[in-house]
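Collaborator request log, item 7. Partner lab (contact: R.S.) asked for a structural prediction of Transposase to inform their binding assays.
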Amino acid sequence: MRIPDETRDQLAVKFAVLFPHLDERQWRLPAAAEARSLGHGGIRAVARAAGVSETTVRRGMSDLEAGESLVTALTDLRAGRQHPQQKKRRFSGHR
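Returned to partner:
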């Protein structure tokens, strides 16, 4: 099925607004959801509209099928090293 140019243009605008605020893992999920909703030809249309490879969109679809959630992706952002100010607060006033 051919995805109309108008649909691809609308996707490109949507992705241009949304994607700068998300990391790759986070934006793969909405991209995959869009591809799934478009049906046959959706992966290629989304990949072209987003300016990414079809493999990236397929990976997002795999994430969706595996139950990968945006909440999990956002939670993982808080993992890792603490912010230096958080360390200072924890130790300040204790000698």
